[in-house]
Amino acid sequence: MEEIKVLISEEELNKRITEIAKQIEKDYDGKEITLICILKGSVFFTVELAKHINGDARLEFIRVSSYEGENSTGEIKMKLDLKDSIQGKDVIVVEDIIDTGRTLSYLIEYLNMKKPNSVKLCTLLDKPSRRVVDVDVDYVGFQIPDKFVIGYGLDADEKYRNLPYIGVIE
Ligand code: IMP
Ligand code: MG
Question: Which ligand 1 atom is the nearest neighbour of the CA of 106?
């Protein structure tokens, strides 16, 4: 098995996620919130975030996939669509990591067609040096360098999602 170096510990993750939850709580001031979890990577983050928002936070799920690699067209595919309407809702899209920004810029455009009252973006990790498409992010957990990270929902070929921390394969 490869050696994994801890980049962000479980304790640091929990502390920061609680801070973001409190910030969201303040910003929404008792309003109903719809958290849209982007499967599969954002599951751990969404759950931890939702647990710390004191108020009416509802959960929706969506799954998209992007084609990566040398022949990348930047095309995004909808794998699992929302099941309930978000019309008139105050939506927060919860993402694991923003890399090129393609996934989120596609999703924002897609979600806006469904006429929510507002859409904000929340990401656990941000790799700003890799951005290709500009996206306005409202809540960021940690900015990280251009390294491939795993754990806390993030995978390498579906492996390592269940690690309780963010790590780098050495
Ligand atoms: P973007 O469309 O390039 O911003 O891609 C974001 C998606 O790429 C994320 O939702 C992840 O699934 C994946 N991704 C980007 N960087 C990493 C990484 O370091 N580890 C694991 N997955 C990553
Ligand atoms: Mg992902």
Answer: 2
Q: Taking each helix axis from N to C terminus, what angle separates 10-28 and 43-52, rounded to the nearest 10 degrees?
A: 60
**Residue 85 buriedness (CB in 10 A; 0-12 / 13-18 / 19+):** exposed
The answer to pTM > 0.90 is yes
The gap between the terminal CA atoms of the chain, to the nearest Å, is 11
Q: What is the pLDDT of residues 8-59, one digit of tens each?
A: 999 999 999 999 999 999 999 999 999 999 999 999 999 999 999 999 999 9
Can you tell me which residue has the tokens 């996939």?
65
Domain ranges of the chain: 12-65+83-147
Provide the CATH topology of domain 12-65+83-147.
Answer: Rossmann fold (3.40.50)
Atom of ligand 1 nearest to the CA of 42: 10
Residues in contact with ligand 1 (CB, 6 Å cut-off): 41, 66, 96-103, 148-150, 154
Active-site residues, by number, are 99
Residue having the nearest C-alpha atom to atom 5 of ligand 1: 99
Q: Give the tokens for residue 3.
A: 């050696």
